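Reproducibility note. Readers wishing to regenerate the assembly model reported in the main text can use the exact inputs given here. Chain order matters: entities are listed in the order in which they were concatenated for prediction.
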Amino acid sequence: MSDDKGDVSRRDFLKTVGVAAAVTSAVQASAAQAGPAAIGPGDVPITLTINGQRHQLSVEPRVTLLDAMRTRLDITGQKRVCDRGACGACTVIIDGRTYYSCSMLAIEAQGRNIRTVDGLAKGNALHPVQQAFCDHDGLMCGFCTPGFVMATVALLEKNANPTPEQAKRALDGNLCRCGTNIGVLKAALSAKGVTRG
Ligand code: FES
Ligand code: FES
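Running the prediction on these inputs yields the following structure tokens for the assembly.
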């Protein structure tokens, strides 16, 4: 009696496992069908809007926004220094917020308004922040400068008269190895006439 019960129980168990496995496979197959289409690893066409201009290009999905701009589009204002989100030299403004372009994929930046230091000057007239950096010796070798300038622009577009503490906090994602921080801070506190870009 107990053997019969055991046999029935084993058969039921095996049936249950079989059904569960079939259901799991079906669910996985349908999830795979419903998920986003795989892209890459080869080049894919993308469109980026940078400094108000639309650019169509093809890049592998692994390419960062910084590399796409610098090596494919010849937009070289933002610098590649650490390439790992530690120094801020690659800082861009996207939809009003600062981002490290070395730490964002180019395909992620589609459909967004990307701004770099290349788009700040109007002809020969420097942007007020660029002028303030010159006036206050906010640069030496210049590798960090485009990132600092964009971080400062983003700050002043939100807050035209920051306190020193607010400016320090807004710029604390950027590093200068030449030690221009005092000049950068003076520039950020003195630049006037920054309007929303
Ligand atoms: S180059 Fe992007 S944070 Fe340093
Ligand atoms: S000016 Fe040289 S790293 Fe800042």
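We highlight two features of this model. The CA atoms of residues 43 and 83 lie 21 Å apart. Helices lie at 2-34, 65-72, 128-135, 145-158, 164-170, 181-190.
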